[in-house]
Amino acid sequence: MQTWERGCAGSALLRFIDILLRGTGQVMFQNHPLTGLLFLAAIAWGALAADAGAVLFGGLLGLVAATLTALWLRVDAAGLSAGLYGYNGLLVGLALPTFLAPSPMLWACVALGAAVSVVALLGTANVTRGWGVSALTFPFVLTTWLLLLAAYAFAGLGGEPPPFAGELEALEPAASNPLDLAAFVGGVLHSISQVFLKGNTVSALLFLAGLALSSRAAALFAVGGALLAVTSAHLLGAESELVSAGLLGFSPVLTAVALGTVFYRPGWRVAAYAALGTVFTVVAQAAMNVAFAPLGLPALTAPFVLCTWLFLLPQQHLQDDGNGRR
Amino acid sequence: MQTWERGCAGSALLRFIDILLRGTGQVMFQNHPLTGLLFLAAIAWGALAADAGAVLFGGLLGLVAATLTALWLRVDAAGLSAGLYGYNGLLVGLALPTFLAPSPMLWACVALGAAVSVVALLGTANVTRGWGVSALTFPFVLTTWLLLLAAYAFAGLGGEPPPFAGELEALEPAASNPLDLAAFVGGVLHSISQVFLKGNTVSALLFLAGLALSSRAAALFAVGGALLAVTSAHLLGAESELVSAGLLGFSPVLTAVALGTVFYRPGWRVAAYAALGTVFTVVAQAAMNVAFAPLGLPALTAPFVLCTWLFLLPQQHLQDDGNGRR
Amino acid sequence: MQTWERGCAGSALLRFIDILLRGTGQVMFQNHPLTGLLFLAAIAWGALAADAGAVLFGGLLGLVAATLTALWLRVDAAGLSAGLYGYNGLLVGLALPTFLAPSPMLWACVALGAAVSVVALLGTANVTRGWGVSALTFPFVLTTWLLLLAAYAFAGLGGEPPPFAGELEALEPAASNPLDLAAFVGGVLHSISQVFLKGNTVSALLFLAGLALSSRAAALFAVGGALLAVTSAHLLGAESELVSAGLLGFSPVLTAVALGTVFYRPGWRVAAYAALGTVFTVVAQAAMNVAFAPLGLPALTAPFVLCTWLFLLPQQHLQDDGNGRR
Which of A80, B89, B179, C265 is the most buried (most CB within 10 A)? Predict the structure, then answer.
């Protein structure tokens, strides 16, 4: 690491790569280049295993475009070095080719969305700072939603009309099946890898390794959040396939890591509070899946943003020293 | 009352009951245990008359769960004693069994929603305090919406898919009928009792008695708001059945009481301003009913929250001493 | 002008007319009575050419009702004189008869909506002032949306149920056609006149004349924004008819003028930033058109409000002196 840091000090290119790697780590709140490298490896593995090289390319394009926009906008140096201006662009670039077919126009829109995600981050941060919370992935969610909705109206991005009447099928709830261990473990791991929009076991393990490298508590809360999400979704009777694909778990995983380790000092009261927030994020994910079905729009990490904001706003009430009163 | 207060001072159990009663009164902004008791009687009567004991049980469960959560979160003592942490949980508990079938999973969700309503109240209050307004029933609306939407995706809560294509029928507007006095009076009273999700005349009178006990102005504004809401909904040509069931009037009643008595000192200018807000709440209620029909989602008291926030935010402009300029 | 100002100083009626004219100019951020007069002429021409005198009448009614409400609410004198309390009411009054059939009830709702738009402006301004941005046309959008949605539930305003299943047709994208110069120029001009809800070439020229009279930069940014909007919508493959009718361009025009001239000092970095915001407003307009299609609800200028807020919130980053860091 020291060699790397010395290299960065001496080379603008290495410094730029360092910012990109840290930006990748910031998707799960980690400011560490090696964590970012492992995350990138996980993304690459997940994309290539699914024969979706466009997703990897889009992610890199978004990451670079967002970072260059941040440089052009002369953002604060500390935030830039920590990768805070890159993670939303990376997610925009992973999401758009996941839902839309690759084309030159799509890549233009990835660059546009990534650039706007930086503006949105600056704006959101200005608003939320006053309440002691950060912007999380709200800039990614906002810009990606607008681009995905607009794609229905633009022939250059596909232009198929949305379903409107909705496409919710009759439920085949997991709760009615005997609990299948393989599906359960798969659901837990995919809940972690779906943070980067892919259900892939090897990727999940790489993500966990990257997390553990930078913060063992974060890795623990990620696994705990995934376990809790899969269990509660199962008990509530969610669709088996959604649960085992990790599609009800990625937002809760982020909530668990955010509430448990990043913004609060860990401890038992914090863990219980984070568990409450994690379970409610499962509810919010299911709710938003239903609400956006008529528009054929994915909820993305909006449930994480909503629930984490909700649970962070009353921040002062969870100090473990018993002085939680305002 | 003095005996009661002495009793509360000496007994933790009585104190807890006092908090629960005041929490019930806070649904209509009253910090008074007897008002809460009359409200509870009204809720019980309305639930039992409709053969919906589950609604009464849910309401009590939500009230207790929210109050215990507030204790666990070590909220401020003054707000706790005034019942400010209970009313949202009570409403969550009344609403969920109104729209979903009773089951152990439903009760678990009532407790979850009530607990989250406390978190949401603390968070919302932190945000809105800066603008001089309070959280109102926003925490109830938010948590209940998410749970009702999620119920479509969870077999344990029913799991029926939402209508999506909407279910608005052709209008049979009240305006086309001769004005029927019984329907009119029924609409006015039900507009008051629907604040607690039931259309029941006896309940409405109990609510009014409870209000009058604590604040005669509040009772007057409630009746005035209901009269105005029913009249304007009728004149605008709303569906007869909705009007006489009080379903377009409960949000306006809350707006009238909030704008007229709680946050502003009453007076003629305030009354005219409250009347404007009340009529616009009828519009907002109709609008949200339409907007949420495809999701089969009730608007709950969201129109009240929206319009009361809207009309409270420019607060400084209504002092009756003529010094209303900033 | 000096004669006019002396006349205003001596006559309450002329002063009131001055406020109305400035209120009209404020739709495009201009505080100038002659600009307002030219805008009114453009509105009148557009309405009468389309045989829609009701739109002109509604606009005037909304403008007067909003201004009288502001007087009754004793708003600040400076804002009142500058017409800041009139433009939202004018737009409410132009929009409602554009989408609903004229009737006495409609005029009552124009007056109601215009009055509420003043309350909403005061409230929104109180909230957004803390972040250094203004309310823009958010009060118009909010009140008009609620009234248009409510119209589906009120026989007195029409009472037809909304489409719900949506009405997006297969795209006939402009991009597949050879670029037709007449359609292109028409799209540019209509993008300007649609700010006031009419696609009319003469009106567009009158609007430009009014703008240029008060601020040549504003006129330039309006034309530049319209060019950019039509070009990018075309390249993205938007429906030809929407593009040439200016229906994807009016929000971007407002964004361009707002970002380019009103809130930032112009310059090359500002121009590039405004261009980014303008193109993204095209995306947001298309996105909201899709999202609201099931409710049969027009997006109005919501894309402008959203994108301009988004791009104004990080304000401090665009000073041309290179000291843009926080």
Answer: B89
Least CB-CB distance to C119: which of B164, B176, B310?
B310
Residue C64 lies in a domain: yes
Mutate to test the interface with A, among C279, C305, C310, C315 (most CBs of A within 10 A): C310
Question: Do A101 and A211 have their domain in common?
Answer: no
Q: Tell me which DSSP letter residue A258 carries.
A: I
Considering the domain architecture, whether residues A38 and A112 belong to the same structural domain is answered as yes
List per-residue pLDDT tens for chain B, 326 residues long.
889 989 998 999 999 999 999 999 999 999 999 999 999 999 999 999 999 999 999 999 999 999 999 999 999 999 999 999 999 999 999 999 999 999 999 999 999 999 999 999 999 999 998 888 999 999 999 999 999 999 999 988 987 888 877 666 656 665 556 568 889 999 999 999 999 999 999 999 999 999 999 999 999 999 999 999 999 999 999 988 899 999 999 999 999 999 988 766 778 888 999 999 999 999 999 999 999 998 999 999 999 999 999 999 997 556 554 443 33
Contact predicate A187/A245, CB 8 Å: yes
Output the CA torsion sign for C176, C178, C184, C186: negative
Residues B181 and B56 reside in one and the same domain = no
* Distance between CA atoms of residues B112 and B276, nearest Å: 37
Q: In CATH, what number is assigned to the domain containing residue C188?
A: 1.10.3430.10
Residue B39 to residues B35, B211, B257, Cα–Cα distance (Å): 6, 9, 16
Q: Distance between CA B297 and CA B95 in Å, rounded?
A: 12
A127 in contact with chain C, both atoms CB, cutoff 8 A: yes
Domain assignment of residue B129, yes or no: yes
Q: b/e string for A87-107 if b means 16 or more Cβ within 10 A?
A: bbbbbbbbbbbbbbebeebbb
Q: Does C288 touch chain A (CB under 8 A)?
A: yes
Residues A130, A257, single domain; the answer is: no
- Pick C295's closest partner by Cβ from B164, B165, B291: B291
Number of domains making up chain B: 2
pTM confidence score: 0.95
Asked if B118 and B185 sit in the same domain, the reply is no
C73 touching chain B per CB within 8 A: yes
Mutate to test the interface with B, among C152, C154, C164 (most CBs of B within 10 A): C154
| Chain C residue closest in CA terms to B322 | C74
Specify if B163 maps to a domain: no
Q: Report the distance separating Cα A87 and Cα A89, nearest Å.
A: 5
- Host domain of residue C235: 174-318
Are the beta carbons of B126 and A324 separated by less than 8 Å?
no
Cα pseudo-dihedral A88, A91, A96, A102, rounded to 10:
110
Q: A37 and A183 in one domain?
A: no
Structural element, H or E, at residue C106: helix C104-129
* Chain B to chain C Cβ contacts (< 8 Å): 120
Given a contact cutoff of 8 angstroms between Cβ atoms, the answer to whether C61 and C112 are in contact is no
Domain for residue C326, yes or no? no
Last-in-domain residue among B112, B130, B157:
B157
